[in-house]
């Protein structure tokens, strides 16, 4: 039996992880907004607690505000630990965006025509590759319980991305500048008791664009923090700032921090920094770090840099007799991942001439994955030797 257009499109949304029941039924909303935006963020937060008390909120509630961040149009922040996602969720039929909830603009997909329009919008954006950098609003949200200043958790969410309020009320404090937001979050890092909560505050700090303020705060955690989880979060957030000082700090941390996990995170964070010196730092870590797992993180990061300089240094690394077979294989995989087959000439030479048969075998296996005539010619040459 042929399915109707509506049935086909609903199947499309099911494949995208959306539920049919969510297509027309929004969350239960209780949103309270502070009218006076002239007061400081700290004062508005205190007003928010007073409002929760006046409204007799019996259980958990959300309190939040928005900061402005420059980012590509297709990048959003979503909740839970400030992880970065890519996509376009505006006008999602299953979940309205946080901006929709705040504005009261909840437009469920409740007709064939709306379903077709939304599907076409999704398909149009799936084919789009270049997105301009724009100013976007990112919400900093605290999950609170009545009677306590310390939140249960700190969450981030782009306003153009869905956020599950879980039927808890939201007290919205409005817009906040970077400086007052950072002061509030830094106070939480210093004075709150829970390690996971302080870690979430650090990740929220790292989201801000104000590198000249953010980097010194993260540096102080790396230099003075006794808790490795906080140092690891600080290292991770440094990777969000395309700044030479961030590269210096991550290099030093990857080489010298007492915690292996922190050293690994510092090496990995360098991948997201596009400055040329980040490549030099990763090469240094890949060659000189005392732990193989840290060197592996650096090699993986180098594979994503896709630059000619990286290709040559990975080639040298894989040919160093002092490196273990495991690390050499990691370098081979990184060469395979370079864009536009930049690593292929090095893989060919390794497959033909490397002294270690195990390394040659692995390089030959990787050549088999290339859809490139040079790889095929090399494999034929090896077979005929």
Characterise this structure.
- The chain has 385 residues and is an alpha/beta fold.
- Among the domains are: 176 residues, no CATH class; 80 residues, no CATH class.
- It has 17 helices and seven strands.
- The strands form two sheets. A five-stranded mixed β-sheet has the order 1-7-2-5-6. Strands 3-4 form a two-stranded antiparallel ribbon.
- Strand 3 and strand 4 form a beta hairpin.
- Helix 14 runs parallel beside helix 16.
- The chain is globular.
- The termini are far apart.
- The N terminus is likely disordered.
Quick summary of this structure?
This protein is α/β, with parallel strands linked by helices. 53% of the residues lie in helices and 12% in strands. The longest helix has 15 residues, at 112-126.
Describe the largest sheet.
5 strands, mixed
The count of strands amounts to: 7
- Alpha carbon gyration radius: 25 Å
User: What fraction, in percent, of the residue positions are helical?
Assistant: 40-55%
Beta-strand percentage range? 5-15%
What is the approximate shape?
Answer: globular
* Series of H and E elements: HEHEEEHHEEEHHHHHHHHHHHHH
N-C termini distance? 59 Å
- Please give the oligomerization state of what you see: single chain
Q: Which strands sit side by side, in order, in the main sheet?
A: 1-7-2-5-6
Q: Could you say which structural class the secondary elements and strand pairing correspond to?
A: alpha/beta
Number of helices: 17
Low-confidence stretches are: 1-26, 306-311
The average pLDDT is: 81
